[in-house]
Design a protein that fits this description.
Structural class: mainly alpha
Distance between the termini: 28 Å
Largest sheet: none
Radius of gyration: 16 Å
Shape: elongated
Number of helices: 3
Helix content: over 70%
Length: about 80
């Protein structure tokens, strides 16, 4: 894990404590937009310029993005509704 990622997470945690409700709702809405984008189905554009990326590579990347997005969505849902 990079120092930048650690710093970013620490900064987010610090901001959460004092953020107004509207800002938190806006932030969660943006996160859901990102997870929706991550789960966008594979298209021809996923293969890069000239279609040089293999099917296996494109599928693996999509599966990884989708898995992370689903985990984030689930974590938000659990945080909002309780375990």
């Amino acid at each position: 894990m990079s120092d930048t990622a650690d710093y970013r997470r620490d900064r987010i945690r610090a901001l959460l404590a004092d953020a107004p409700r509207e800002r938190l709702v806006e932030a969660l809405s943006e996160i859901l937009d990102v997870t929706t984008t991550a789960m966008t189905p594979i298209s021809y554009d996923s293969y890069g310029i000239g279609g040089w990326r293999s099917d296996d590579l494109v599928r693996a990347e999509f599966d990884a993005r989708t898995g992370v997005a689903e985990d984030v969505d689930a974590a938000i849902l659990i945080a909002l509704t309780g375990p």
